[in-house]
Amino acid sequence: MDKNMYKINRENVLEKIKDNSIVVLFAGKAPKKTGDESYPFTPNRNFYYLTGIKEEEHVLVMSKLNGVKNSCLFIKDIDEELEKWVGKSIRKDEAISLAEVEEVKFKSQFENEIHRLLTMKEEINLYLDLDRLSANSDDTISHKYAQKVVSKYPQVRVNNIYSIIGECRLVKSEKEVENIKKAIEITKSGIELLMKEAKAGIKEYELEAYFDFNCKTKGVNDLAFTTIAAAGKNATILHYVDNNTELKNDDLILFDLGAQYNCYNADISRTFPVNGKFTERQKEVYNAVLRVNEEIISLIKPGVKYKEINDKATELIAEECIKLGLIEDKKDVRKYYYHSIGHSLGMDTHDIETPHRNITFVPGVVFTVEPGIYIEEECIGIRIEDDILVTEDGNINLSKDIIKSVEDIEKFMNKEF
Predict the structure, then answer these.
(1) Residue 166 CB: number of other CB atoms within 10 A?
(2) CB count, 10 Å around CB of 11?
(3) pLDDT at 6
(4) Which band of pLDDT confidence, cut at 50, 70 and 90, is reported for residue 144?
């Protein structure tokens, strides 16, 4: 990744905040799993977006005071004894080189430095990442820090930086798109391996393991999300992740999966027959979903609103469901299609979007298109998902090389390897 990208990202964020403001972003810390074991660490994505650093416990402080901008990274204090057990943490010169920040200090200096910054003005703004998934979500490090600051510094106005960074993250740079393309490339080879190894009698998780193996051998340490490997009736459950049912000869299996590369994600869905041959009914439903997938992709371009394509997708799927004999009235489509057409994609699989997802497509946005039809009574669930880059004059399907026509799937699955 081009280290200059992180400096540019910080400059873009600082341009959007008020003067006399401080931004504090925490890398995070892996929560305890059990005993002396922790869950695998993954950095707060907004911290990573502005630093490129994947280690836990570091803190980024950005300031904009009287129009003067500055970035300081507070790294963990060096504990050489601990490093014999867990490995070395980043050093000052390494942090400066990677993130291109103006200053690097140790975390033991953080509280004094923050105190100095927060007391420089009679009134000052403090921006924190205060994203909360729901009202009952646990407090993050940032939420707890906000409470601490409010109790000590009544002159400080606490603001949420989440949507401001989200606005920046929505439009991807060339470097970011290259990372997404690499994640898709790895995902493509994994899907092809799944098609090669599919057979009746094995469990969903056994087939899923081939995708994990493919990703590991290509340097992927983390997936975009927990893989959905759903055969037969299981594919009508949107977020089915048990992945423990035995595959039957006449099943379709739906895979919704993605590799992660440099913290950037692929998100692909493909559905194929376990035995390599669609039944006539499976083919009929599959082609209905494929037509919607291709029609919606063709509509994505700058100036088009998310709501327009979402409404259009619902209308098209309703028409296909009528043709399939599933419904008689379009208003009943939600029985067989119960999600939206897609979402922004980037460092998060469901990447940050503007409030209420009311986005207008502009060049640099990467968006998924994932129509589906789910017929529980027929044990058929089909979703076809591609990752689309909005360009100046239209779009590019970044996942166009992952086969998805009935003919190509059957040809691929029935050839000798």
Answers:
(1) 20
(2) 13
(3) 95
(4) very high
Sign of the alpha-carbon dihedral angle for 221, 222, 223, 227 = positive
Residue 238 carries which DSSP code? T
Please say whether the beta carbons of 316 and 294 come within 8 A: no
How far apart are the C-alpha atoms of 337 and 37, rounded to whole Å? 41
Q: How many residues does the chain have?
A: 417
DSSP-derived secondary structure for 368-406: EE--EEEEGGGTEEEE-BEEEEE-SSSEEETTTTS--SH
- For 90-133, the pLDDT digits (tens) are 999 999 999 999 999 999 999 999 999 999 888 899 999 998 87
* Orientation of helix 92-99 relative to helix 4-16, angle to 10°: 70
Query: Are the C-beta atoms of 74 and 110 separated by less than 8 Å?
Result: yes
Structure-block tokens of residue 139: 């407090």
Residue of 54, 53, 67, 51 whose CA lies nearest to 17: 67
Amino acid at 63: S
Q: Would you give the end-to-end CA distance of the chain in angstroms?
A: 36
Residue among 365, 364, 374, 307 nearest 341 (CA): 307
CA distance 104 to 102: 7
Nearest-Å Rg of the Cα atoms of the chain is 24
pLDDT at 338: 95
pLDDT tens digit sequence for 358-367: 789 999 999 9
Name the band, by pLDDT with cuts 50, 70 and 90, for residue 356: low
- Report the candidate in 57, 43, 18 with the shortest Cα–Cα distance to residue 161: 18
User: Quick check: pTM over 0.90?
Assistant: yes
